[in-house]
Amino acid sequence: MNYLSFEDPKCIEILNEGKPLVFPTETVYGIGVRYDLERGFSRLVDIKKRPPEKPFTLMISSYDEVSLFANVDENILRVVHRFFPGELTLILEAKETYPWVTLNHKTIGIRMSGSQKVTSLIHQVGVPLLVTSVNRSGKPPLNDVSDIEKEFEDEHLDIVRDNEILSGTPSTIVVIMNNEITCIRKGNIPFSDIENEWRNKK
Question: Count of domains in the chain?
Answer without folding.
Answer: 1
